[in-house]
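Q: My labmate handed me this sequence with no annotations at all. I'd like to see what the chain might look like in three dimensions before we decide whether it's worth expressing. Could you predict it?
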Amino acid sequence: MTTTTVRKFAISIDPEEAVDFAEPVDWFGKRLAPLGFKQGSTYSYRYRDNECMMKVDLVDSQDGYFVYLYVQAPDEHKFRAEAVAKAFDAFVVDTAGTKRHSLKDD
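A: Here is what I predict for the chain of 106 residues:
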């Protein structure tokens, strides 16, 4: 049995750090539904196909919600994360390691 990498990203309006969105919960669902995400609970959305699984979690903040994306796939994660960020007109912030890096600038 092979294992596939799971990567965590933040979707943010700031390319350098995770910044929250000051939007109501239904705003997120309207952007994720066209990408094939299904709402699993009030604050999470899931996507699955033969190549990958993705999950978006909304985390409460003082002004709205932080958006975190988890991608599990055997191939490159970058294009999948960028598609989700594009739906929010935002950036992908790689949360791996201590240095944050915007994938949109690559």
